[in-house]
Amino acid sequence: MQERRRNKYADMTEEEMEKYFQERHAQEVYTRRGGDLDDQPYDDDITQNGLLPSTKDPNLWIVKVRMGEEKQIALQLMRKYLAFQNTEEPLQIKSVVVKEGLKGIIYIEAFKKSHVATAIEKIAAINQYQITMVPIGEMVDSLKVVKDIPSLKPGTYVRLKRTMYKDDLAQVDWVDIAQNRVNLKLVPRVDYTRMRGALRNPDDRAVRSKRRPQPKLFDLEKIKSIGGEVTNDGDFVIFEGGHYRRGFLYKEFPMNSVIADGVKPSLTELERFQETADDLRKELESTTLKEKGHSFAPGDNIEVTDGELVNLRGTVQSVDGDKVVILPHHKDLTEPLTLNAFEMRKFFKAGDHVRVVQGRYEGDTGLILRVEDNLVILISDLTMDELKVLPKDVQLCADVATGVDSIGQYQYQDLVMLDKETVGVIVRLEREHVEVLTMHGKTVRVKPQAIQCKKESKFAKAMDSQKNTIQAGDLVKIVDGPHANKRDIDDEKEGVIKHLFRTWAFIYSRKHPLHGGIFVCKTRHLLLAGAKHTDTASIQTLDADLLRSPNPLASPHPSNGAATPALSHSSRSVAGAQSVRGGAPGYGGGGPISGGGGGVRRNTAIIGKNVRISQGQFKGYYGIVKDATDTTVRVELHTMPKTINMDMSKVVEVGGAALGGPAPSTFGRTPNINDARGRTPTYGYGSQTPMYGGGANTPMHDGGRTPHYGGGMTPAYDAGGRTPTHSSSWDPAVANTPAHPSSSMDDDDFVSSSFGSSGFGNSGFGFPSSTPNSQRGQTTPYASTTPKSGTSAMYSDYAAASPYPKSNYNDSATASPFHSSQGPTIIPENFLKSGEWCKVDLCVNVRRAFPDEDVHSLEGVIRSISDGRCDVYFDEIDDDRTVGFDYLLPCKPQQGDQARVIFGNDTGTKGSVVSVDGLEGVLRISGSEGDIRIFSMSLLCKIC
């Protein structure tokens, strides 16, 4: 074997032998080190061992001294050494060492113990009899200065001192104090270009790459593609001795190979270690990021912040690494100066045109409006928005950024869907994010991948505040809501509808300063340009009693007596005969024309007919009538999906004449089917004779049941047959015979009803008898009362008109739990300013008289109340304000909001707003099973 090896070397040239031994030893070193660079060169250890003390060096002696005087004794020994230096017997000691923190002991370096004894002689603060030599092997450790290494805890960030991971960021996984080792989680540096296993090339097997691989998460597929062999150990994947999990390398290192002090990771490094955005957000709250200095370029204006030339300003001429050459702006300094980059910062003044070179708004340009402490506020050339950036992130420039109007499949001002219930409009495009103004008026910043889809609103339609049809592209006015002009001297705000989504409209206005002119409004706050604006206070709203079913088991109202339901308050009919527009079958209702005395009457005779428009911009169009009144008609066109309002005189029935003209009336008709009082017998009129259904009947009609609510009682509930009677003969709630006109005594008399408003309730003339029936039925014995103030307004829920007007009412149906509020409809101004209605968690608006204009028209939430003031939090500005009671207004709730009644008998009632109809809102009371009530919207306040 040796002979063959010797012959092998004999046949080699010098170059071949050199190459052979280099490859051989390189392969052995690589195999021994496991493919890593953890070990240091051996010559470093040899050099360090040569510096250790030996027997030929002076010894180290321990001398005890008086505690607290260690440094003074060292100085005294130094002065004594200098004093004896030029004498015949100089001191033979070499040095004196005082170790910080070591009390009562000093070290003296000398060859012999006698030399130390001579040096400390006659010094009172030194114990001359206790001199101890330090063993040679312990000399280094005794004087070693150990740095106070902060205790490493799992989760803290460190950096490595050596190996291929030098200066890389790592996270502590666990610490083994006994073995002085720490296990770190770090981003691996794996060379994916070098083949492994069977795919390894024999020619370059021993050639080792000196290039350090880039940090990248472990990729199992790439490892398999280059022939790497991996094994599994629980959650870990083992490759070439390293343990990998979720792409990270977990490896042990000595404790002294990590840097724990002053580690400030950059944002990019932190993003690698966090798996979700929430993890990164939490990490940023507890981690100090790496501070970046200013990046200077020739032409930048700078200001010196440190050194002897502090506050000196100048212009950058050239940059060489950390050295910056500037030309000072000073009359006495005419030569260029070279300064360090960390000693200066960029300087800007208002009016400079700059470009953002890094950060969130990178690439944008704008004009500087003002400069604050370490902050530059500029207005963007593209969006005209105010941008707040750091001075180090901007640079002077003369050109204007062109910007981009699309990112991927999304463009500027597109309507997009963020989730199944939220849409918004893109109001800003960035490199990797977009800003979206949601339908709730909030701005969110998301990545394009987080957007579900783009929506089209070209064919979407909605109704404005006056029930006009609006669609994208229409010019509208903002007449209500937070974006409306509150002062009368201001013009109404106008804009063009960009997108419609359900009841929200995204509007563009050049006068709106935010979000590129885009803002969002409710469609009920808009008015189509050119349409007539009607005061909402004059619009008759739907009466709550229309929705109430006849309840034969309801308690009699004390102010209603036994009046016919058709003649109850405001001409309401619990029998369901009142029309949607407010009409009642009695006195102006009935037939094809329905409507109350003072309300809009609905013409149902022409609904469903085909008509042709004879005048106006839609002249010649055909359509079908969807609704009609005496003067107007609502037509759905056949040729386009649009419904318009037209004057009755401008519409002609197909194959017939014009539809215009007064509606037919049933007044004076004999017989009149809509008036039940002239009939004999009459039902429900307790004040006339004969009377059926009153409480004075014995036995009462249908009162023979036992028990019967209010029927067979003797005396009957609230009836005139009680002996003795508990009510006066003037009590309108009692069926006295003869009956006195209740209108003279009852506060809820017929004058206040809609019937009285039509001219009958307070007339100064009487009504003659008419048989069998006229507009006014005959009463007995008071056939003609002069003056007569109207029919009795007494009403009983037990009584029923005979016959019932035709309706959809089913007498077998149960009554709905629906009640109408009978309290006030307007809150007095003095009550609002008193602040009695203010409660915590109520939403409020601030009057424009409030001095702080930043919170005008903003919606706030009451946080606390004290001393006539409220602490109000405003979400849009993310700040609190202290506002007095006299500056606060309740915020009206919308459909779906939680609300509270703040005035009237029902003060404190809470519930959910089911719907809003004009000036009234339907409230589902909290804590009750389906109880629904109607309140005036002015009495409700939104709960946030």
TrEMBL record:
Pfam families: CTD (PF12815), KOW (PF00467), KOW1_SPT5 (PF23042), KOW2_Spt5 (PF23284), KOW4_SPT5 (PF23291), KOW5_SPT5 (PF23290), KOW6_SPT5 (PF23288), KOW7_SPT5 (PF23287). InterPro entries: KOW (IPR005824), KOW_Spt5_1 (IPR041973), KOW_Spt5_2 (IPR041975), KOW_Spt5_3 (IPR041976), KOW_Spt5_4 (IPR041977), KOW_Spt5_5 (IPR041978), KOW_Spt5_6_metazoa (IPR041980), KOW_Spt5_7 (IPR057934). Keywords: Activator, Elongation factor, Nucleus, Phosphoprotein, Protein biosynthesis, Repeat, Repressor, Transcription, Transcription regulation. Its main location: nucleus. One of its GO terms (molecular function) is translation elongation factor activity. It is found in: Nucleus. Residues 557-573, 771-790 have a biased composition (Polar residues). Residues 677-824 form the Spt5 C-terminal domain. The keyword DNA repair does not apply. Belongs to the SPT5 family. This is Transcription elongation factor SPT5. It comes from Ditylenchus destructor.
